[in-house]
Amino acid sequence: MLSAALLCLVVAVSDGDTLKLRCGEPGAYRRLTVRLHAIDAPEIGQPYGRRAKRALSDIAYRKTARLDCGQTDRYDRRVCEVWVAPASCTDARCPKTLDAGLAMLTVGMAWWSRAHASEQRPTERGQYGFAEREARARRVGLWAERDPVPPWKWRPAHPYAR
Predict the structure, then answer these.
(1) Which CATH number do you get for residue 72?
(2) Catalytic residue positions, numbered
(3) 162 found inside a domain
(4) CB half-sphere exposure, 45, CA atoms < 13 A
(5) What SS3 state is found at 94?
(6) 3-state secondary structure 102-146
(7) 140 in a domain, yes or no?
(8) Of 7, 30, 32, which is closest to residue 19 (Cα–Cα)?
(9) pLDDT reported for residue 160
(10) Beta 30-36 vs 78-84: how paired, if at all?
(11) Which pLDDT belongs to residue 3?
C-alpha cells in the first residue's frame, strides 16, 4: 500500500493523528499535511483529544520524520507511516526507528483503525493489535475511561467540533 519515502521536518501537530511537515530543500520547501496510517485518535473537542495531541507532539514535533505514504484521504491529507528517532536519541542523524502510529497506540492515545488493517503488512497488523490490547489491559491513556467513545462514533454527533 505505502510507497514514496520522504524525509521531512514535523513543524506542527494538529491533533492526535495529524501532522504538518516541511519537506524538501531550503528555497524549495513543500508543506505537507499527513494523517497517520491505520490509527484514529480522539478529536480535539473529544475527551482525551488534547492529551492525544500532546502525546503525538512529544513523539514527533520538531523531529525529522521518514514518511512512507500511500493515498490521500477525503480531507486532502496524505496517509503515511511516520517514522522518527526515539526520544532517547538526540542526534539529528539517529535512525528513524519509532513508528509514531504504533507509539500512539502503545501510550493509549489512539484506536487501531481496523478498517485499514488490510493495507498493513501482517507483522504490522499484529503489532498494532497487540499495542492496543496491551494499552487497554493496562488502562493507560484513554483506556483509563470505562467506555471511551471512538472518534468514528463521536464525529457524527459533533460535526462542527473538530
Answers:
(1) 2.40.50.90
(2) 35, 43, 77
(3) no
(4) 9
(5) coil
(6) HHHHHCCCCEECHHHHHHCCHHHHHHHHHHHHHHHHHCCHHHHCC
(7) yes
(8) 32
(9) 78
(10) parallel
(11) 52
Distance CA(82)–CA(67), nearest Å, equals 5
66: three-class secondary structure by DSSP? strand
**Chunked in runs of 10, what are the mean pLDDT values of the chain (162 residues)?**
73 98 87 96 96 98 94 91 92 89 98 91 96 98 96 90 64
> What's the angle, vertex CA 75, arms to CA 69 and CA 76, rounded to 5?
50
What count of residues does the chain have?
A: 162
Domain assignment present for 32 = yes
Reference 116, options 135, 138, 101, 137; nearest CA is 101
State the total domains in the chain.
Answer: 1
As a whole number of angstroms, the distance between CA 82 and CA 91 comes to 18
pLDDT for the residue numbered 4:
54
- Can you read off the three cell numbers belonging to residue 128? 498494532
Burial zone of 154 (CB within 10 Å; 0-12 exposed, 13-18 middle, 19+ buried): middle
Residue 130 domain boundaries: 5-157
